[in-house]
Amino acid sequence: MNSLTTGPRRPVPANALALLAAATDGLQEAARSDLPTERYACAHLAALRAAAAVLAVRARPDGRRRRPQNAWAVLAAVAPELGEWAHFFAAGARKRAAAEAGLRSAATAREADDILRDAECFLRLVETTLGVLPHDDRRLVPCAG
After folding, report:
1. Residue 20: which of 51, 41, 44 has the closest Cα?
2. Nearest C-alpha neighbor of 116 from the set 49, 44, 50, 21
3. Are 128 and 4 in contact (CB under 8 A)?
């Protein structure tokens, strides 16, 4: 068993698979963009969709009313092995919002390339964690490690 999993594999729900496919599409869109802000926003959103796939599989509402939490905080709670990634992407959420708002200074080309690479690696890790084959075997960027 992969050290990133926490028990026997269950079938992955269709909504989680759809989120993984949308994340892959978002990474491809980011890779095609010449605008750093668009590349940054698309890549960050792809990572958020990958996180949502994990939440679709692991998060279980307990019926109690709670203060809303963002997806990254919930991800860190339900998938502690992805906690560092959750904190990393949570830190970039404001930058993504600025990029989506059209602020050209929101992300440099280097930042956009870095987040694209990181989101690609995160998506592959999520796929491994959930026990699914990659939606798209073409790697956009090499993952470190």
Report:
1. 51
2. 44
3. yes
Residue percentage of the chain with pLDDT more than 70: 79
The two structure tokens encoding residue 13? 């729900």
pLDDT digits 0-9 by tens, 21-75: 999 999 999 999 999 999 999 999 999 999 999 999 998 766 676 776 899 999 9
pLDDT value of position 143 = 56
Q: From residue 110, how far is each of 15, 24, 101, 102 by CA, in Å?
A: 33, 21, 19, 18
pTM across the whole model: 0.84
Contact 24, 132 (CB under 8 A): no
- Domain spans of the chain? 14-59+70-130
Contact 131, 70 (CB under 8 A): no
Secondary structure (H, E, C), 86-143: HHHHHHCHHHHHHHHCCCHHHCCHHHHHHHHHHHHHHHHHHHHHHCCCCCCCCCCCCC
d(CA 6, CA 109): 37
